[in-house]
DNA sequence: CATTCTTTCAGAATAATATTCATAATTAAT
DNA sequence: ATTAATTATGAATATTATTCTGAAAGAATG
């Protein structure tokens, strides 16, 4: 348990807002936006990366373009002991599983899964989930339509 | 309803894999990786952006670093008619709401919300959700711990 | 306060990448 | 086959990234 101090200031927040919105914005543009030198921006961005404030950069790909049209959420009850997460880690290794959350109340997980279609989902549940030791039951929720989906976080001040 | 043809080939898939993993990878590096000229990569990437295969680039920010430590999922029952989504669109406008999915079965939505803490969640539910017309009921699920969270999509071939 | 230590920034110099464009190669269409 | 359309290359130029030195600003110390 390492308590981390982030100590971000107003300038950091501005940089984060810009980069959250456009992960490929360049230092020169950020510098222009904030009225600073590019070299100063570079230093700050590197620091933000090192402090794990910025965790990753990624291109968001249209799931339909790669034939992953079905989105589902599955509640999974497991026999994991509190704290450990044998099942959770096994679930996390499945490529179609985008998220694994340990949830309160149900000694279980909520996972988010993308497959080609319902057949792909059934296959995944049978062939992959079925082989994970410790799963007691599942309850699947199919998404008909996604109205919003991003990971933009609210940045203070 | 516009049926779109994406027509992606092996090279596109390789580019997508690289960019999904590192949204800031540069054309020169992709070119080296694929044994092509940087200018050719640039053209393809631009095309992928225009065809909405690549939807967005973004920096993933550590929620804890900006004091958004609590993640919750909320099922929301609404009186929206099938197809319309008055409530869904209203929910999508809330900055703390990262995702809004129209789900099968319950004439309702599943939303993903980040707040500072449980107090922030209660405030949001009272002050913001409470003002959305058409919400019949809610059921909240608190996330204790996240094991995995990304939007990496499985890319074929 | 003065001094030291630390952090952050600016600005210049250089390295690397992005972008453009004309041409060649490849692929698809008829 | 021939033409048309797409995609790639390679060179030239524009921009940006990166490094580095010194200055400025802040924090900590006595």
How would you describe the oligomerization state of the chains in this entry?
A: homodimer
Helix content of chain A: 25-40%
Beta content of chain A: 25-35%
Question: What's the end-to-end separation of chain A, in Å?
Answer: 28 Å
Based on DSSP secondary structure assignment, what is the total number of beta strands of chain A? 5
Q: Give the neighbour order of strands across the main sheet of chain A.
A: 3-4-2-5
Biggest sheet overview of chain A: 4 strands, antiparallel
Structural account:
Two copies of one chain form a homodimer. In chain A, α2 (27-34) packs across α3 (38-50). The longest helix of chain A has 13 residues, at 38-50. The first copy, chain A, is α+β, with helices and mostly antiparallel strands and 157 residues long. Chain A has a four-stranded antiparallel β-sheet with strand order 3-4-2-5. The first copy, chain A, has five helices and five strands. Chain A folds into two domains: 10-50, Winged helix-like DNA-binding domain superfamily/Winged helix DNA-binding domain (Arc Repressor Mutant, subunit A), CATH 1.10.10.10; 63-142, Lrp/AsnC effector binding domain/regulation of amino acid metabolism (RAM) domain (Alpha-Beta Plaits). Helices cover 32% and strands 30% of the residues of chain A. In chain A, β3 (97-103) and β4 form a beta hairpin. The mean pLDDT of chain A is 95. β5 (135-149) of chain A pairs antiparallel with β3 (97-103) of chain B, so a sheet runs across the interface. The first copy, chain A, binds a DNA duplex (30 and 30 nucleotides) through α2 and α3.
């Amino acid at each position: 348990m390492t308590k981390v101090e982030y100590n971000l200031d107003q300038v950091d927040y501005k940089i984060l807002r810009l980069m959250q919105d456009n992960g490929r914005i360049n230092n020169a543009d950020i510098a222009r936006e904030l009225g600073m030198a590019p070299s100063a921006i570079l230093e700050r961005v590197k620091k933000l990366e090192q402090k794990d404030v910025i965790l990753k950069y990624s291109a968001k790909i249209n799931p339909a373009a790669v034939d992953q049209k079905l989105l589902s959420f599955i509640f999974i009850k497991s026999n994991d002991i509190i704290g450990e997460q044998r099942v959770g880690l096994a679930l996390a290794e499945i490529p179609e599983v985008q998220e694994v959350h340990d949830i309160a109340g149900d000694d279980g997980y909520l996972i988010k899964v993308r497959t080609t279609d319902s057949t792909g989902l059934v296959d995944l549940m049978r062939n992959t989930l079925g082989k994970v030791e410790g799963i007691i039951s599942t309850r699947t929720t199919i998404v008909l339509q996604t109205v919003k989906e991003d990971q933009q976080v609210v940045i203070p001040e």
